[in-house]
Amino acid sequence: MIAERMDDLDTREWLLTNGLGSFASGTVCDARTRGYHGWLIAALDPPGHRTLLLSHLEASLEVAGQIFALGTNFWKVGKVDPLGYQLLRVFSADPVPTWIWGQGDWQVSRKIAMPYGLLHRGSEPRFTPAQPQVTNRVLVQYQYTGSQLGVLRLRPLIGDRDFHRLQKQDPNLTFSQLVGANQVFLQALKGGKGSKAGIPWQLRWSHGHYQPEGVWYWNYYYPQEAKRGLDYLEDLYSPGYLTVLMQPGDTLTLEARVGLPTETLANLNSLAFDQAVLAKQQRLEREFLHLPHVTGTHSEIWEHLLRASDQFLVYQTSATTPTIIAGYHWFGDRSRDTLLCLPGFALTTRRYALARKLLIRLGRLCCQGLIPNELSEGGEDPVFRNIDCSLWWIETLGLYLEATQDWDFLAEQYLIVKQIYKAFTAGTLHGIRVDASDGLITWDDASVALTWMDTLVDGQPVTPRNGKPVEINALWYSALCWAEKWASQLSENPKAPNAERLKNQARRYAQQAQEVKASLQKFWNAQQGYLFDRIEPDDRLDTTIRPNAIIALSLHHCAFTPEQGQRALQVACDRLLTPYGLRTLDPADFAYQGHCAGTLRDRDLAYHQGTVWSWLLGPFIRAWQRFYTEKGQPFPLDLQPLMTHFCQEACFWEISEIFDGDFPHTPRGAIAHASPVAELLRHWHDLVRNEVERRC
Q: Which of 348, 357, 520, 629 is found 20 to 30 A from 446 (Cα to Cα)?
């Protein structure tokens, strides 16, 4: 993707990851606008404990006695200095972020690559539980062209801090350095109470002269953090600078790598960078080699969707299992997002072994019928503050089994299905239980938020959904249908020792499913032609128009009639649908907020009160396929705005987490979110076919 005009600062973002949770990120203009921007933010306990080590290299070029600063920074006083963006001629995000600065008869290019961090044999990751084979590193390459000798000076700006926090100069914070041949070993030393040493890492280069010269740079200004009402000033330390004489055509390669000094590393040369880029491309080709080749005008986007999906798939070295990062920069491992992503990332792409591993891992976390959503780092106990993750687990297990017919896996996982069923029917944490009067799932406590609309402000849910939420009970109905099918199927196995018991279980599931199906009609609002969002604990009906009704209509087993589905989808088209996803609230509602911006409190108040969530396009598409495809009506979607966003807007080749509900639907939240990428992969071929039909 090429930016041909660089008249103004271009703060669109780029992202590189390494399969461990580490990442590198920044902007086109090269100024850091977030505390999450840096060239080596390393997951020290993959995929957690993400730590900023190398922020960037401040670069200047001297030609014929004239010095040109190539960098761009924002500062506390509101100024931009230096003005390297004015020399920027070209930026390309593919296959790696590449900048070209130039003036007159000279030109300097820079490329950044983050090699895959997991050493593997063949197509499977290679793990030994005691010593996982991982490496966190980033490569940078400069190339100079011109008619005269150039002098390139590079000053590394470093830190050692959690990626959620910013660094300040502190008498108790120092950095040690040990200079070697074409390398320097660095480590933070944190004195005072609870003193400790930081992570050791090294910076290497192919050639040049390094001069130690420790200096602090104060008050880097991050405008995106200021807009979000967060801490926005940072101090970074520079241990010295590198001077490199560059003949026309010369290339300089650098590497920042986590770890203690070792003598086994090969010397850096001009080929090291290209070899690393090629190795990563070849790994991706192997990952998706089994998929049919896609041709046509949308083939490039399909390839980039596959690559984007790989950015979120990471390995936990402590557990030697895969998981999915919910989004970059700041999200971690979340069960609900993993389950929402699994069909697109693993079933559409036919990576069935990956799907099994994800399901096994989350199933093992089930406790009292619940699966924790946010999986904590550092060995802390998980928090079971949700009602739906275990129901999504059953739904996703069903999709996996439909795709694979892997009935041996069903036999292994059926005990977890029964555990979830028993916990919900007998009652579990937070007062979650089945209402004996109608068979629906409910809980009473208004102070806890247990659905995906889980934001709290001042300790209270912004969108109270206690009682009987519509999508939760639709998931419950689908889970009962799956359980009936599976119990019947397992009972037919001639080797099953408990066939009669399984048949009885199937009959019980079927009976409850029919009861729930009938009770779900309580959610039908004939006056609105839509589904009530919830039945409150006092049996009042919530008429709020939200996308949860569409989620309910999109599940594999659906309890609603074709007429109800069609009418509800038309309401969603009129009130909720945008080119980027579904609004979380009808704009006509008095509580609607069309912009999700400002302080954390402001954003939390708007998060589910009108903000567009991009992943909700997936449920909308599935519901439309169920209720309208046979009528020959194409999806009421223009794919182009979302594709333009994916290719060249907020973050190149990624999709933002959320968008403003009001036009022009400014992208907000995480710049790269896993679930919308997964949903596009899941429905890509249908969407492309739909786009062709719409234009014919």
A: 520
pLDDT in tens, 48-87: 999 999 999 999 999 999 999 999 999 987 789 999 999 9
* Confidence (pLDDT) at 542: 98
Residues in the chain: 696
Residue whose pair of structure tokens reads 């002269």 in the numeric block: 209
Residue by residue, DSSP assigns 324-348 as EB-EETT--BBHHHHHHHHIIIIIT
Query: Which secondary structure element, helix H or strand E, spans residue 548, and what is its range?
Result: helix 548-554
Q: H or E element: which one contains 460?
A: strand 460-461
Residue type, 444: D
CA atoms 655, 658, 661, 667: torsion sign? negative
**Phi, psi values for residue 183, rounded to 5°:** -165, 155
- Cα separation, 162 vs 156, in Å, equals 19
Answer yes or no: pTM beyond 0.85: yes
* Largest interatomic CA distance in the chain: 90
Tally of CB atoms within 10 A around 630: 9
Cβ count near 37 (within 10 Å): 24
Neighbours of 214 (CB within 10 A): 12
The pLDDT score that the predictor gives to residue 123 is 42
SS3 609: coil
- Identify the burial level of 385 via C-beta atoms within 10 angstroms of its C-beta, where 0-12 means exposed, 13-18 middle and 19 or more buried: middle
Q: What are the residues whose beta carbons fall under 8 Å from the beta carbon of 677, sequence distance 6 or more?
A: 305, 308, 309, 312, 341, 344, 654, 655
Sign of CA dihedral 135, 305, 594, 472: negative
Question: Which residues are registered as beta bridge partners of 62?
Answer: 67, 151
- Residue 589 phi/psi, 5° resolution? -75, 140
209 Cβ contact partners less than 8 Å away, ≥ 6 residues apart: 242, 243, 244
Residue type, 258: V
Q: How far is CA 20 from CA 114, 312, 676, in A?
A: 11, 9, 21
| Confidence (pLDDT) at 462 | 96
Question: E strand or H helix at 282, and its extent?
Answer: helix 270-287
Residue 103 DSSP SS3: strand
- Tell me whether residue 285 is exposed, middle or buried, using C-beta atoms within 10 angstroms of its C-beta: 0 to 12, 13 to 18, 19 or more: exposed
- Cis bond leading into 494, ω under 30°? no
CB 424 within 8 A of CB 435: no
Amino acid at 281: Q
